[in-house]
Design a protein that fits this description.
Layout: H1 6-9, H2 12-23, H3 38-42, H4 46-59, H5 73-82, E1 91-95, H6 105-113, H7 116-120, E2 124-129, E3 134-139, E4 150-156, H8 159-163, H9 165-173, H10 177-187, H11 199-212, H12 219-237
Parallel strand pairs: 1-4
Antiparallel strand pairs: 2-3, 3-4
Length: 238
Amino acid sequence: MAQTSVLLALPAEIRNQIAEYIFHREPGTTLLPPHKSPLAFASTCRQLYFEFYALARSATVFTMQWPHGRVFVPRIIWAILRERHMDRLTKICIVHDGVQPYLSLPTLYSMMQFYQPYQTSKLWEARSDLVHGRLLFVGRRQGPDQAARQVSLFIGYSFREAEQYVAVCEQIGQEQYADILLARRRDCSCVTPFSDMSDEQVRNELDYLRVQYPIFDDVEHVFQPHVDEIRARCSQAS
């Protein structure tokens, strides 16, 4: 006699709540292996596939192999945006693991402006949206009654730096530089360890954080303590 699944015996509403809980992934966390992905759960049996495949597919992060050798990122992004049968794509997350340490949202936005296929095409418009830690690609409307398609792009050393961009900016504003660089060594395999770096190299990496994660809001709150310190020192010297 076949054993009845406890999950399938539950009411549909409770099954839906369980599935939503299982499929939820906190932004910035590493990916689950394929055999533990939402799609793997939905493929367990025919009934789960019928009930949850669409939800599982939208909750699954699909990875692509990073090409060997030197990579021109705008070309990869453009190929993904122009790919057929990807009209449901809403998010691209580039995690370079330290392979391209100078790649950032501001840099990538500037690169896109000079990329020839993007310049000549009217299909997509790239917008800098650092307030939400992303580049936003807005597609051309396909019809008067259709909303413009939008694809968000995130980028960083790790999923944490890419998907929690705003939180990293706040850390920089609070001068928690050590936490950021130590987290890189914990999460990334292609980052030079501190034992192999000179003090100058560490300072250069710290300095470049301001380019990768510019402070974009509440500048007065971030810098006023430093202004107060400067004025206090000037008063003592006079």
